[in-house]
Amino acid sequence: MRLLLLSEYFPSSEQAELKGGVEARCFSIAQELAKRHDVEVITSFQGGPRLDEVGEVIVHRVGMRHPYASSGALLSRLSFARAAAEKGRDLPCDIVDGCNFLSYLPAHRIARTHGARSVATYHDVWAGGEWLRHTGLLTGVLGELWERRALSLPWDRIIAVSEHVRVKLSARGIPAERVSVVPNGIDFPALQELKAAKSAAPSICCVARLVPYKRLDVLVRAMAIVSREVPDATCHIIGTGPERHRLEHLIHEHGLSGKVTLRGFLPRHDDVLEAMKSSWVFCLPSEVEGFGISVLEALGCGTPVVCSDIPALREATGTAATLVPPGDATALGAALVDHLRDGKLRARKARGGKTHASRFDWPRIAGEVERIYEALAGNN
Question: Has this prediction a pTM greater than 0.85?
């Protein structure tokens, strides 16, 4: 098959400088399917060559220079969407998959141009108020309009990354027979081979964009509790975003300088995984997730997970994680203290986490996506 994937961001090398779960999924599935099919990706331009090759995947980087941003950057985002639709006219294909929100409209247009099958991979549904709640007025209004238009299109197939997302799609009127659920995945064998000894002192790791709905403020407040009960404990938060200055102020306000470190973006994904694997506990206090690859990666590393009790994380972790009410710093702090103090609890959670995470290896996930593509192409 000739597969064309559209993603706002895509790594520039096989070392996978990943900035989020959406990019990780597109990269991993593209690499797997390129072993058996012709795979091309259209993504935004962030410098470097416009025509690139990452592994066996041909990558077209289009539009004006577009920095990584969780919100805003409207001009460069629209430039990417328009340029992607134009580039796609020159790339004959059997399947076009819009792998993230911004790519849906150009992906459907490209599919229509070539008479190809159209697929949208949905990581979450924000239409109906969440755009305004999470991104502010301007981005929120534009995001709401864009997503409503995307949901109105006659897609041949929508792939939801979780049952939670499928339910949200159904609530927006998408017929169940047009939706398949294929979860996100991890490179489980690579996590087992990764060498990273546990830190000598108690440590907590969090990997998340620094945006309001990830609720990192709750983690900082929880660390005020942890530091009283486990004085030598530290917390490392990996990620970038507009909340950095607010979090720095909160860390200082709670006297946690030296206890909580904002490490920023780590270009090598292996460095992120090493931080996860060397930590005693992984924490994700988010109140909004479509799936949550980072919690699966932590479980695959054998690092116990404490995270918010929200539908997507409940679904992603099964019974392997410790769940706490979202937004409750007291409950989060208590759960973290329990894990840091109890080695037997950590060992039990580590074993269960690995068993659970092993079911989400990327080759298996890519195989599920491949079968959907093949069924669509066979009916074309």
Answer: yes
